[in-house]
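PROTEIN–LIGAND DATA SHEET

This sheet pairs a single protein chain with one bound small molecule, zinc ion, given as SMILES. Inputs appear in the order they were entered. The predicted three-dimensional arrangement of chain and ligand is reported afterwards as a token string under its own label.
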Amino acid sequence: MFIEIEDLKPEPIEVRQVYPAGQLDLKRSDATLNGPVETDFMLAHKERDLHVDGKVQAGIRFKCSRCLKECTLPLTASFDLFYLPQPKWLKREEEIELKYEEMDIAFYDGIRFDVDLMVLEQIELSMPMKFVCREECKGLCFSCGADLNERVCDCAADQPDSRLAVLLEFRKKMGK
Ligand SMILES: [Zn+2]
Ligand SMILES: [Zn+2]
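PREDICTION REPORTED AS:
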């Protein structure tokens, strides 16, 4: 969905959009959208400088990076952003850097505002770097693949934790 800036009246508008499941795709490969995505925001503008303020709601599906279990997570991203027409002197690479350093300022072409792109960016920005099913997830055993949340395998007993072994060795040398 695009909003043509030329068609905007001076007053702010409220934009509500529901994307049916399957209409938007995340760039990240470790998660997918699960169900519809909703956005609701106010769009105000001064000439071609835009101010958008609202939220995005989506469900995401991912595999826990530790135990590989499939999980779903409801996600709400609130945003309060300024979109400015892309200055001519700004190259593409610089645009990306600026956008992520100054989270509240982004650029667009100054002609039409890409709502889908903003919605996807907001979802991705509010996603964690790594997905885990829960903070305490113990993950899988590196040797036998057992889910350590469900049972304790025998591998741990055979191979002492290498960091612990180093520490024990160190203590022995120090005479403690
Ligand atoms: Zn897990
Ligand atoms: Zn094991």
